[in-house]
Every structure is written in C-alpha cells, then in structure tokens.
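This entry is listed below:
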Amino acid sequence: MVSRITTFAFDGIEARPVDVQVQLLGGNPHFSIVGLPDKTVAESRERVRAAFSSMGLALPPKRIIVNLAPADLPKEGSHYDLAIALALLVSIDAIPADALQGMAAIGELSLDSQLQPTYGALPAAIAAEAMDLSLICPEPSGAEAAWAGGSVLAIKSLMAFINHTAGRAVIGPPPAGAMKKSPPLPDLKDVKGQEGAKRALEIAAAGGHNLVFCGPPGSGKSMLATRMPGVLPELAPEELLEVSQIQSIAGMLERGELSRRRPYRAPHHSASMAALVGGGARARPGEVSLAHHGVLFLDELPEFNNQVLEALRQPLESGEAVISRANRHVKYPARFQLIAAMNPCRCGGGPSEANCRKKPRCLQDYQGRLSGPFLDRIDLFCDVPPVTVADLALPPPAEGSREVAARVLAAREVQARRFAGLEHDARPLNVDLTASQLEEICQPDPAGATLLKQAATQFSLSARAYHRVLKLARTIADLDGADQIARRHLAEALTYRWRDPVMSPALSPA
C-alpha cells in the first residue's frame, strides 16, 4: 500500500504541490528518497529515523521508498521532513490511514521528534487553502500560516499529532499573528534647509519614481532618504500579502507578525550580486525583492560593484528578479523604488570645491562608474548643497512628514482613480504607465509639447528617458492638482534629468 500526503516546493514565492508517496517493499532494509531531492531533503532519512527512535518506534526492516512527485521538479529544503514522517506513520499503522486525507504538511523535524519553525508557511497555507486542504505545520509557524484564513493545525511534535488523531489531546486552530507595532519613523522636520531636495523626495514618493541625491558629505543625503518611509502610505491589503509572502520565504516573519509599513532596505555597498538581486546555492530573495512595494536605498552609489548595479537594470524595468539555473528559472517580485546617494567625486566635493585636488578629472572618473543605461532608468537627479550654519540655526520647519505624506496620498489617490479605467497589471502609479497609456493620459499642452521636443533634441533623450520625463511631469501635475500637463510641469521634470558631470547645456523653462 502507498501512503500519501501533500507538501509544497517553493518556486519563487509560489508554493507548488508535491505528492509525497511512501511504500514499504520486501528486500534488504534500505531507506531511499527519490524525486530530484537536494542534499537537505536526502538527509531527511536520518532526521526521520532519529525522531521515530525518540518516540520508541522502530522503522520496519524493509525497503522504504519515498517518492516526491512530480519527479522533475527540484526539491530543496528541510520542510519535507514532516510530510515524509506522517506518511511513514500511516505505512507502519501508527496512525489511521484516513488521518491524512485532505491534509498537507510542511515542517522540519529535530532528532527528538519536535518540530522546528520553517520558512514559507504563509505561501504554503495560501496554496493549501486554494486546494481545499488543511495545513499541518510546526507550532511556531502556526500564527503565520493562520493569516491565510484556511484550516491550520499547528503541532509541537509528531507525538502530539499521534495523540490528536487518537483523540487523546485535540489541537485547536492557532490564532493569526498580530500586526507589528513599529517604532516612530524619522520626520522631515529634522531636516533644516534642503527645500529643493525635500521637493524631489515628495515628487518621487507621489509617483513611485527613482531618485538619486548627489552632494558633498554631511549635506543630509542619507538623512533625507531615511525619511522616505514616513511620507509613503501604508501597504494596501494585496500589497501586504505579497510582501509578507516574500518575507515568509526569507524567514523574516517572527511570531507571524505582519507590518503595514512599506519595506525599507539599505544594503552596504560591499553587497554581492546574490545578496542584492537574489540567488545563492539555494535560491533566496535578494534585497530588491525584500524591498518589494517599498524602498531600496543604496548609499555611496558609485562604490557598489559595477556588475551588481548593472544587474539592477532588469528588475528596475520589469519589476521582477529572475534567477537563472541550469534546470530552472526562479522569479521573485521586485517592484521597488530606488533611492540612492552619492558624493560628486571621490574627494567628496566637486570640481568647484577647494578640497578636490584633481578637478575636474576626479569627478568625471567617479561619476563615470555609473553606466548610461543604468542612469537612464533614474527619474530624478537632485543636487544637495552643503547645509550652512545659518540653516542649522533656524528653528525646525513648520512642515514635516505628516503634511508631505498627506499630499503624497492625495496624488496617489488621483492616480488610483485614473488607473481604475485602464487595463493594468501593476501598481496604480505613474511610474508604471505603459507607452499606450502615456499617449492617453500624459498629453502636454502645446507649450509643454514644444518644450519637450526642444529638450529631446538638445539633450538627446532616449525613448525611455522621453517617457520617464512625461511620467514625472504627470506626477508633478497631480501634486499641483492639474488635469493636463503644462509647460511648467515639464520644465520642472526636465531639471531633474541627468547632466554631464562637468558641462551641460542649459534649458530655459521660460
């Protein structure tokens, strides 16, 4: 007789069903697992054997075959332990044959038959609910799995499940985890001066645009970037679900607590490509995916490895990170907002600063580390001048993150209403407008069209840059409460385009 139970293999954040089949055959005692398992799955033999021994159960002196179907789907991770152990318990008549009907299971076994918390409990629970199955999972992962709204059985050990099936100790459904209480966010009131940079930050937040701050050390670039989460609205329910599934796969949902706050990730400039984009020996989401629907902040932008920055080009354009393997491709959502900060040159100043001893070559070499195709995907470049002593002596500004967040929310609501009448698969933000949608809702007035045509010729704008200027102007118009893009909106959008680090032609907005 073949004993069966469903478990899941994770393909990105998608949980794909795996049929665990256990059969006892005659012949020399042997325990084998087939179905393309990796080393961690193959080691389940010893964990299951030790867990049974700790409960006083001995594996039968037979040939034990465990098949993980479909056999051509790679199996990775230790979460197959529980499903293998449960199917084996049925095979040796330790639990009734019908105990696993309508069930799925994930979980890692310890040597004393206790269950360890496992990653991916939330995506697995969502997949089980879609298949009309109840999910058996470790007790520490129960609060996370309960968010899916389906039937969940969170158990401490194999013996606890045996007692549950025998009616000796019935296990109730676990409560869902709480919403995380996050500490207060830094406020824009702490930033004195830098009104131009604050304006750029507000525009970027309103439309989801990518932004680079450029200025000497101590001018407040990182300080401004850390205040971006405070002006962004909370995650929508569907966004919260996507973000939480990524965090579940990454093992970041402690005690099953979710947060409506948008992710903010700030990796060090020594981060590898696998750390930033995802991958590794066992594919895991990188920083771009952990920042999904949130902010990825790259400080000291030119100090990042050039290949790492070039690897960001595809996620910035498509909104997903694709990790290629010899036998499969893994996709993770990666629709993030890039905020970066950089010094004008390696000395920290610029060609006009007294402390730069190699001007202008120093600035050209330093900023030349950023490729043209990468810079073409940035919507706003904002110069951040040094803060003067007079600025520091001023009282705190009257307007802080709360006031800016209100305008950002109002602009995003305008975009959401506009997207309601359009076919789209992305966030309802201007940065996600397609070329056909631009033709429909981003038509400037005649004066603005003339200015844009002049700028496209004078600055040799690529098609991507041309469209990004239109999207940025649409966001500025939304903040201004205007139905049509005017010349002033396009003029402001054009001032944020990248210029040659030493000399650039001026464009008069008048």
Summary: DSSP finds 21 helices and 18 strands in the chain. The longest strand covers residues 14-25. Residues 501-510 have pLDDT under 50 and may be disordered.
